[in-house]
Design a protein that fits this description.
- The chain is 17% helix and 38% strand.
- With 197 residues, the chain is an alpha+beta fold.
- The protein has a single domain, classed as Tubby Protein, Chain A (Alpha-Beta Barrel), CATH 3.20.90.
- A 12-stranded antiparallel beta barrel has the order 1-2-3-4-5-6-7-8-9-10-11-12.
- A hairpin with a 7-residue loop joins strand 3 and strand 4.
């Protein structure tokens, strides 16, 4: 993958969608969250035509703030998983990322500064001024190898008016399977956190 990867979160759609492109503008994937499901399910396609399914992300339980989301290839092979840490995520978003076949977390994703996310959410609720929060406040999330380990990838909110824009930059080494698990984790985290700022 050619970093930075760019996430475009479409805000004016009936179901949440994210388009991911690489540093040269090439399409990496198109994500569509399925609506009206008791168990969260997200489809990841090769592009916005939605003809070629690359992966699915599915929760292990019905509506739970500590759910684990498993990534699967179209043939059913597991590509990894991400689990939201419910109590730990109340103040600062905290997700454990599992590489393919791993029983213990390989990576941890956390907000870099929870105050920025809090201000982004509060200012976003103010009429008229809230329309411009995308230009003022930019929360970021960092993936580290284990708790407190070296950084691997970082997702940062970018200035945007009528859509959500994020940039995913590489901060350290990771193999191809780990990068895919982290990309899918950041996509799912983005969908889960969208209502928090």
């Amino acid at each position: 993958m050619y970093y930075p990867l760019n996430f475009r979160f479409k805000l004016m759609t009936f179901t949440p969608e994210i388009d991911v492109t690489d540093a040269y503008g090439g399409t990496i994937c198109h994500v569509r969250q399925q609506f009206f499901r008791l168990r969260e399910k997200v489809d990841v396609y090769a592009d916005d035509s939605e003809r070629t399914l690359l992966a699915t992300i599915e929760a292990d339980r019905v509506i739970d703030w500590s759910a684990r989301y498993t990534f699967r290839a179209p043939d059913g092979r597991e590509l990894g998983a991400v689990g939201r840490q419910g109590m730990r995520s109340l103040w600062r978003a905290h997700y454990d990322v599992y590489a393919p076949g791993a029983e213990t977390p390989t990576f941890v994703i956390q907000e870099s500064n929870p105050f920025v996310k809090l201000l982004d959410g509060l200012v976003g609720e103010i009429p008229i001024l809230g329309m411009f929060t995308g230009y003022m406040l930019h929360p970021s999330y960092i993936a580290t190898r284990g708790e407190g380990g070296p950084p691997v990838l970082k997702l940062t909110k970018k200035p945007a008016l009528l859509e959500g824009r994020f940039a995913l930059t590489q901060e350290g080494p990771a193999n191809e399977g780990e990068q895919l698990a982290l990309l899918l984790s950041f996509l799912m985290m983005n969908l889960l956190e969208k209502n928090r700022g």
